[in-house]
Amino acid sequence: MSDMRVPVIVEHAPFPPTAARRTAVPAAATAIAAVHTALPPHRYAQEDLTEPIGDLCLPPGADRALLRRLHASAGVRTRHLALPIERYAGLGDFGQSNDAWLAAGLELGAEALTHALKQAGLGPADVDLLVCASITGVAAPSLDARLAGRIGLRPDVKRLPVFGLGCVAGAAGLARVHDYLRGHPGDTAVLLTVELCSLTLQQRDDSRANLVAGALFGDGAAALVARGSDGGSAAPEAAGPSVVATRSRLYPDTERLLGWDIGAGGFRVVIDAGVPGIVRGHFGRHLRAFLAEHGLTTGDIGTWVCHPGGPKVLSAVSDTLGLPGDALDSARRSLATVGNMSSVSVLHILQSIRESRRPEPGTWGLLLAMGPGFCSELVLLRW
């Protein structure tokens, strides 16, 4: 853990000057054809997890007041876990946890992939690129390689396994898929995110960061199917928004705000209390500058797809952008029903928006997330 101080940011010129604004909807826009989230079958109410997680993380007889406050204030009502809660005590080392990540991750990844492709009216042989992101386990061959034969991807499919992006990987992965499809407009690309956060919980670790993680994070996988501008139309029932533009941002001297300390016990979470301060101090300015390049303001955004980092982070985003009170309701609902699923969360939120209250054609959207680095990723959408 860091010393909980908000780092001093050395600002640089945020964006190079441009002679003219970019066109609102470039010809190389990427169509999101389908999104599907797969959740483990082990679903628990938050109050039913508090004491079992206390048994795992706290020494016998320890005061549980802080643990109970964190669980009550996390904004989470239910979560899905990769394993039944009683099995976690039997995970004796990192190897056993990672084996469980691989087994459950392959099942959930295959489910998310096959359902998303079916929604898009496509088959596994139609996939030209598979980007696979996970920060809760490691494998070589990677998850994408192991899934290729299992679900019937072509032997010449391009693969890009991604590790280290954490919560931002859902947004960053979509941005990199967009970059690829701009250069390969006839192709189909799939982003797969697999995060089994519960398997990183450190036993007998009563640090505040570990207890926060135990109160906040859930497990799941999600797949997004995207097609280039020459890739044909998606199935009518699967039609989604298009990606118009993206922006990445690294914040200097913030490496210790969020991430992992990796040791013999596996992934030990680093979560600094300074994250909301960075959001309030710097994030809004960069986001507004990005929108201004496209002739937009925050008031033009009709749909916000925001990673649910936690109640304090969501409040910081809403406050610094001056958003209406209900603008981030989709993120709060996702947090309440499935917890923070790291990179999976923004895809889960995008799926729920598309299925429950699809925006009117022409509506602008912004998908955004933050993660280790410390960094942020913005993806401008239009329905």
Structure write-up:
The protein is an alpha+beta fold and 383 residues long. Helix content is 34%, strand content 23%. It has ten helices and 13 strands. The longest helix has 26 residues, at 94-119. The strands form three sheets. It has a nine-stranded mixed β-sheet with strand order 5-4-6-7-1-8-13-12-11, sandwiched between helices. A two-stranded antiparallel sheet has the order 2-3. A two-stranded antiparallel ribbon has the order 9-10. The radius of gyration is 20 Å and the shape is globular. Helix 9 (329-338) crosses helix 10.
Count of alpha and pi helical runs: 10
Overall helicity? 25-40%
Overall structural class, as computed from helix and strand content, comes to alpha+beta
State the distance separating the first and last CA atoms: 42 Å
Mean pLDDT over all positions? 89
SSE string: EEHHEHEHEHEHEEEEHEHHHEE
Radius of gyration: 20 Å
- General shape: globular
Total beta strand runs? 13
Please report which band the strand proportion falls in: under 5%, 5-15%, 15-25%, 25-35%, 35-45% or over 45%. Answer: 15-25%
How can the largest sheet be summarized?
9 strands, mixed
Looking across the biggest beta sheet, what order are the strands in?
Answer: 5-4-6-7-1-8-13-12-11
What are the low-pLDDT stretches, counting only 5+ consecutive residues below 50?
Answer: 1-27
